Every structure is written in C-alpha cells, then in structure tokens.
Amino acid sequence: MLIIIIFILDWSSNLLIFKLFQEANVKRLMSVALALALVLVLAPWRAAIAGPVMGKGEDSEQTLKEKPDTKPIRCVGPVNMSNGVVLPPGKFATSLKYRYVHKNNLYDGSTRKTGNYNGKYDRVNQTMQLTVKAGIFRNFEMRVMAPFHIKQVKRKAGSPPSHKDTDYLSGFGDVVVMGRYALFSQRYGDWCHLAIGAGVKMPTGDADHENVAPFSNQHEYMGPGGQLGTGSWDPKFEIGATKFVGRSRFDAHLMYTVPGAGAHGSRKGNQFKYDIGYGYALSRDFDVELELNGVDQQPHIYDGSKTVNTGGHTIYITPGVHWKLGENYHLSLGVPIVVYRDLNGQSRTPDARSSYCLGEDFQVVARIGFTF
Predict the structure, then answer these.
(1) Residues contacting residue 363 through CB under 8 Å, at least 6 positions apart
(2) Quick check: 79 and 133 in contact, CB under 8 A?
(3) Angle ∠(186,79,280) on CA atoms, nearest 5
(4) Are residues 241 and 193 in contact, defined by beta-carbon separation less than 8 angstroms?
(5) Which pTM value belongs to this model?
(6) C-beta separation of 209 from 267 below 8 A
(7) Do 177 and 233 form a contact (C-beta atoms < 8 A)?
(8) What are phi and psi of 50, to 5 degrees?
C-alpha cells in the first residue's frame, strides 16, 4: 500500500498545485518561520489553549497521569525533523524511518532547465534508517542512527547527449552517534524543553564505488553523493526546543554538519538544517502536523575540485499525520513539498556543456516508532 501511495504522489507532483508552490516568495516564508519561532519562545499559551500542562502542580500532567480518566492526550514528534525532548534515565525509544526522494529535473538557481545535457538527469534515493535512543542519566541521552541506502542514477554522455548508464547501488551507510543534554525540561517543571547536542558521522559505509566508461575517463570513482558513505568523520552540532500545550506541540531544531576530508580527494560541503513544526492531537489515535524544513548545502569537492552543480538552498513545507497504534508505538507519514529552491549551476557555450544541479520534485517520509 505504501508503494502505491508513493507512485500516486510522485505522479501528482507534476500537477499545477505543486508548480504554484514552487513560485512562493521566500521572504514571506522566512517571515512565517521567524514568527513561529517567536511564538514558540514568547507566547503565553497556557491561557490561550485549554489542556493539561507538563511539570508539577494540581493541574499538571504528573498529577493527571495518576487519574485514568484524565490522562493527557499528547502529540507524537514531527516526522521530518528532530526536537528538543531528552529521554529520562532508563527510557528507550527506537524508530525505523523510510525516505523516498526522486530527482528528475535540472535547475539553475530556481529556474528549471529543459535542454539536453550530459551528466546525471534522474536520481532515486531510498533510505531506511534505524534510530535507537536511550536516557543515560538525568537530562542526558545518547542516540545512534544507522542507514541502509538504495541508490539509482541515470546519466547521459555524447554529442548529442543520450542515455549511457544506469548506476545502481545498495548497502549500509555511515553511522551517526550523538549525545544530547537538556538545559530545560517540562518534565521537571520548566516552561519548555531545550536541549543541545553534538556527535559525529563515522565512515562505516563503502566509499569506493567506481565509475564506468565513458565517465571513468574523467573520474575513476563516483562522487560523494553517489557513494554509500563518504569516507570522512563529520562533526555535528544541534540545538532543539519543544513546547507542549494541551493537545498542541511546537518544535524547533537546528543542525550544523562540518564534513571532514573524504575518500579519493572528495569532501561533502558544510550543511545547515533548520526546522520548525506544529502538531495537534486530534484524538488518542490520530495527530496532524505541519513543518517548515530548510537545508542550506554548500558545494561538494570531487577529485580535489569544487563542483559547480552541487549544493544550494531548499525550503520545504511538510504536512503529516500520525497514527498512534498503541500507547507506546505509532506510524507517521509526511510529504515534504519544495516551496523554494536556489540550486547551484553553471551555464556554458554551447548550452549542452552546461552543468546544472539535479533537484528533487518529490519526496515522502514514513516512520514507525516505539518507546520502552
């Protein structure tokens, strides 16, 4: 059923409504993002929205949990971003997330290029990521993320350009280990959850996938985006915030990654991710959510040289739904929609020699999660 939904949504991404989203004014989007962030930090929501509050006190969640008929209805965490909640000591959580990304259009900035060009022209990336989190001691948790990738890319070569190769690759990727410390926690009576964290992506995935002719005449190995791993140690830094108010949930998260030197003279560019989300528990069984996700990706280095057709800035709006199958497990689905993009590219003469960035026009994220 999930595969059927993916293909229907992929086809639908070419409809007019998706094209209209592409024309959104980025200044307005950033204004909305800033407003949401200020709301999360400043607004007095206790008086505005009815529902139990976290922390201590007569009407707190701690008290209401002891009453079977008044146990608070909570919203599950957002599907396409992280948050600011740190697990208590002895608590465990695990999730399996599936992400499908289809890139089949070339872009120069925000302009779609419709010419016939050499190089990659269609890419499908599928990732299944297992995440395990554990509360180690008060206000501190550890988490491990282990991905499995399935990658396919189609490329053109020749004059005029024509299809020459479909490259297929699958296997385990680079494992990420992170620790996170809670500066504030609603669980202990603070106004919100606020956590800072750091970690590293380790070079556990294969980074030696070789090119085939005629592409091997220029580069012996596939670029860092075409490998299962990068061969580098990449430090990561994060800060996250979460606020529960009745059935509502507000989340914000920032992540900065600084890749190290990778295999075969390659290095991925620095990446800054920023996310804001809102969720609402419709009932004990279903939640709805809406996220704003941004990715600012710097260009990659390939065989010692910076590539002109990688990196850029992309903003998504992600509507989602959560099905709470039981008290300790759930199923989530989200569809990130591109509303703004500014991708790197380089025009040349003749036009067939130009290099443009392959941009995604369809993505879907599914997750099943458990807590123990």
Answers:
(1) 99, 100, 101, 102, 316, 335, 336
(2) no
(3) 55
(4) yes
(5) 0.82
(6) no
(7) no
(8) -75, 150
Residues 136, 138: Cα–Cα separation, whole Å: 7
Residue 204 CA to residue 184 CA, distance in Å, equals: 34
Largest CA distance in the chain: 76
Check if the beta carbon of residue 308 is closer than 8 Å to that of residue 355. Answer: yes
Whole-angstrom distance, CA of residue 263 vs CA of residue 47: 55
117 touches 156 (CB < 8 A): yes
d(CA 219, CA 240): 40
* Cα–Cα dist 306/226, whole Å: 16
Q: What is the pLDDT of residues 212-250, one digit of tens each?
A: 999 999 899 999 999 999 999 999 999 999 999 999 999
What is the C-alpha to C-alpha distance for residues 327 and 284, in angstroms, rounded to an integer?
A: 9
CA distance 217 to 126: 28
Place of tokens 């008086």: 47
* Total residue count of the chain as it appears in this document: 372
- In this structure, what token pair is assigned to residue 353? 């020699």
Residue appearing with tokens 């009932």? 283
The CA distance from 47 to 59, in Å, is 13
Q: Token pair for residue 147? A: 């991905």
User: Of 20-29, 154-163, 281-290, which gets the smallest average pLDDT?
Assistant: 20-29
* Separation CA 37–CA 252 (nearest Å): 7
Tell me the torsion sign for CA atoms 59, 65, 70, 76: positive
